[in-house]
Amino acid sequence: MAKDKKKKPQRPKAVNPRGFRDYFGAKVTARGQMLRTITDIYHQYGFDPLESPAVETVEALGKFLPDVDRPNEGVFAWQDEDESWMALRYDMTAPLARVYAQHRNDLPTPYRRYAVGPVWRNEKPGPGRYRQFYQCDADTVGTPTVAADAEMCAMLSDVLEAVGIERGGYIVRVNNRKVLNGVMEVAGLGGPDQESARGIVLRAIDKLDRLGEDGVRALLGEGRKDASGDFTNGAGLGAEQAEIVMGFVSALRDDNAATTARLSELVAGSAIGMSGVQELETIAEAVAAQGYGTDRVLVDPSVVRGLGYYTGPVYEAELTHEILDEKGRVRQFGSVAGGGRYDDLVKRFIGQEVPATGVSLGVDRLLAALVAQDRIATDTTGPVVVTVMDKGRVADYQAMVGELRTAGIRAELYLGNPKDMGRQLKYADQRNAPVAVIQGSDEAERGAIQLKDLALGAGLAANITTNEEWKAQPAQMEVARTDLVAEVRAMIARREG
What is the CA radius of gyration of the chain? Predict the structure, then answer.
């Protein structure tokens, strides 16, 4: 009888979990630089940093992902040893509501905070859609005045210009949920039994950029069939009701005053609608007084924002430059940030309304836009590499590295196999090093070192045919050992200049 063959242990597959990705040095560095610029603006506006846990209790998170049809799904959750349920945060706002409710007696009112970090959503991944991504939020909790909302719009404008988006390359669009609620009232959709229809109307308006007015009109009525043949049920509005909603969608005028005047006409007879218009007028006046014209902050009725917990002003920052989509069609880059007023979120914990407003910036999306416009480098310069010619003189080479670091120059000692100089220089190229430092026994006896400008050398190498030409080329030079720091600094400056 044949012996059973022992199965070899299965090696784990070296693959990312579905919907997650790795970030390497240059991308992490670029993101960090961008986030420092953004948080400097937040700090300038008086916001303080807050770092809360990535994990919250399911009870504290409450209704998950209120912008989807299945609100109690979409998070990564598990049961703890005490049988309580916990989950990874899906945004930065739900944790803020818990923090404020828990510590409100020790916090100033209003409380102004910013937060940066990853969030997680247990959703189906797709092209450009990941289950972990970064957010950078700023919120003001505890003030009902829409001056706080105006400040968010102005700050968004400042942030985009600070990271390198030129004026004219973006627009911050502002609307108000109260105005839309007033339009719903006028259209006969204000009752509690009309909640489903209102949700469909909201989602239809939110798709205006993608579907156009005809597509939105179809979704307001019986529904719409897309190019693949799939049919989406509509809100079932009559022609007159649909025209009222479409009038709201197309209410944008040449300036903020004309737009708010048109909105006043549309919500005539609705108290909540008129309250929303007055808030928009206040925001428009406030940003204009600070020098933010309609080329930067614009009242735009087409902005609705998907999240259901918004109770007043909503805003969205959109980049206006054109890109090609996956099918080669010209598209605008679109939204990179959004937010609004949410006066009911803290109420879940303490039973009383706490007014709040905030903005969330999509970090990875904004970074992609900056890279696409060459506004931020993702091929960051690596460290100066000090090579090892003589294994017995490692301490001498470490001394060189120490001098460079003390002078503020990023540097490292080659720690691989020192036998092959070609391998050491290849490593320096892979590290995107600006300079390689070389010192053999001959140079050491003369009190000299060789400096190799790696970028310049790569450009010249293709045209060098003889040893004499190689010695004469300016990419490599011998300098006094005592001039190490000064000569390396000069070589880096030539490269950057």
Answer: 29
Predicted pLDDT at 219? 85
CB 456 within 8 A of CB 430: no
Mean pLDDT within 326-336: 69
The chain-wide mean pLDDT, for the chain, equals 87
**All structural domains of the chain with their residue ranges:** 384-496
What's the average model confidence in pLDDT over 189-211?
Answer: 78
Tens digits of residue pLDDT in 465-496: 554 554 555 688 999 999 999 999 999 988 77
pTM: 0.83
Structure-token match 């989807």, residue found: 68
- Look at residue 472 in the predicted model and tell me its pLDDT: 56
Tens-digit pLDDT profile for residues 389-411: 999 999 999 999 999 999 999 99
pLDDT of residue 4: 59
d(CA 103, CA 360): 22
Residues within the annotated binding site? 91-93, 121, 135, 139, 305, 309-310
| pLDDT of res. 470 | 46
Please provide residue 180's backbone torsions phi and psi, each rounded to the nearest 5 degrees: -65, -40
To 5 degrees, how large is the angle CA 149–CA 152–CA 153?
A: 95
CA max distance for the chain? 94
Binding residues for L-histidine: 91-93, 121, 135, 139, 305, 309-310
| Main-chain dihedrals φ then ψ at residue 39, nearest 5 degrees | -70, -25
CATH architecture, domain defined by 384-496: 3-Layer(aba) Sandwich (3.40)
For the record, the structure tokens of 401 come out as 């590295």
